[in-house]
Design brief:
This protein has about 400 residues and is an all-alpha fold. It has helices spanning about 5-35, 40-65, 100-115, 125-150, 155, 165-185, 195-215, 225-250, 255-270, 280-305, 310-330, 345-380, 385-390, 390-395. It has one domain: Ammonium transporter fold.
Length: about 400
């Protein structure tokens, strides 16, 4: 039965709006990182997810995540087209209406596949992206939402993920790595980010929206909400500074792009742990996140993987590392509904988090590779070299972002 709390409901509507804002923020973030000839293409891939993912979520996505259970892996179609959900239907937190929960979770579904697009920037056809977006939601995203948040076997086993270290960042990052390895390197490589101010704008919107992403995952206003909010900011700040210092030492100059990238890495890393660890633990997580994500991107460069916008190094490694650190730093002293981690003596919980991280990585990587192979049999995944040279804005969409683009 719904016991409506207007404060909780108003807060969750605000958080839903904040998470929605993250997808345009991601579009600006990625748009600034690519060259001038491909700005609209990468932004289009984010914005089309807002439309098409909403269609899928309304029709069957929400139901497959949160209604019924099939062998602990996926739900059923009891709530397809939001059937059975009315004004009085409660959400898992019975103080907010189910419709608010539906909308909030939908915003997560929108941004998660959009994260992957940064990996294969400038070289994937729009038809292939649409097929990939659709298949990836059904085969990767929806199952993990159900397994961890919708009553599936990982949730029953005791795996925790406060706001999406596995459900969002790790599986998107591992899908990005699979995409990079399948699609291959760009024939025409960008000279570098065409607009770091756009990247800064995108980072600001992402950081701002992340408060709704993490604090909103408590689904009510209480002290845990405040904990998640503070931990989010602390980890992002320490990670950004950590990355900046490492890059400064290595290259001799402090760089804005490094600071921004490090902050996003910290946000991704704290996400699974935001409501389960102390602020001091968030400090350590942020410092470690800056260093680990920086090392991951450096390793990627050494291996010559063409992860154009460092999705694997920032989101994949950040999400994976965050789940492991949750297993280390979790404390019931800060969230009685959570667990105690390795530092407080619970080796079992740490082992479960590590196992879930490995399982999700293998699932996302393997199914992404398989999907891309199938899609390639339907329509070419990679654009022709001439199209890549001319720019995907013109060849895929018949538009240009700047009038002086040749």
């Amino acid at each position: 039965m719904l016991h409506l709390d207007t404060g909780n409901t108003g807060f969750m509507l605000l958080c839903t709006s904040l998470v929605m804002l993250m997808t345009p923020g991601l579009a600006f973030f990625y748009g600034g990182l690519v060259g001038r000839k491909n700005v609209l293409t990468i932004m289009m891939q984010s914005f089309v997810s807002m439309g098409w993912t909403t269609v899928i979520w309304f029709t069957v996505g929400y139901s497959l995540c949160f209604s019924g259970d099939f062998h602990g892996i996926i739900g059923n179609l009891d709530n397809a087209f939001l059937r059975g959900i009315n004004l009085d239907t409660p959400s898992p937190n019975d103080t907010i209406p189910a419709l608010v929960f539906v909308a909030y979770q939908m915003m997560f579904a929108i941004i998660t596949p959009a994260l992957i697009t940064g990996a294969f920037a400038n070289r994937v056809t729009f038809k292939a992206w649409m097929l990939f977006l659709t298949g990836w939601l059904f085969l990767v995203y929806f199952p993990f939402v159900h397994m961890i948040w919708g009553g599936g076997f990982l949730q029953k086993w005791g795996v925790l993920d406060f706001a999406g270290g596995i459900v969002v960042h790790n599986i998107a990052g591992m899908a990005a790595l699979a995409s990079v390895l399948y699609v291959g390197r760009r024939k025409v490589v960008d000279s570098g980010p065409h607009s770091i101010p756009l990247v800064a704008l995108g980072t600001g919107l992402l950081w701002f929206g992340w408060y709704g992403f993490n604090a909103g995952s408590e689904f009510r206003v209480d002290s845990i909400t405040a904990l998640a909010f503070v931990n989010t900011d602390v980890a992002a700040s320490f990670a950004g500074i950590s990355w900046m210092v490492l890059e400064w030492r290595a290259e001799g100059k402090p760089k804005l792009l490094g600071l921004l990238t490090g902050a996003v890495g910290g946000l991704a890393t704290i996400t699974p742990a935001a409501g389960f660890v102390s602020p001091m633990s968030a400090v350590f997580i942020g410092i470690l996140a800056g260093g680990v994500c920086y090392a991951a991107v450096s390793f990627k460069n050494k291996m010559k993987w063409d992860d154009a916008l460092d999705v694997w190094g920032v989101h994949g490694v950040g999400g994976l590392f965050g789940i492991i650190l949750l297993g280390v730093f979790a404390s019931t002293a800060f969230n009685p509904a959570g667990a105690d981690g390795l530092l407080t003596g619970d080796v079992t919980f740490f082992a479960k988090e590590c196992a879930a991280a490995v399982f999700s990585s293998v699932w996302a990587f393997g199914l992404t590779l398989g999907m891309l192979w199938v899609i390639d049999r339907i329509t070419p995944v990679k654009v022709q070299e001439d199209d890549e040279s001319e720019g995907l804005d013109r060849t895929q969409h018949g538009e240009v972002a700047y009038l002086d683009v040749a």
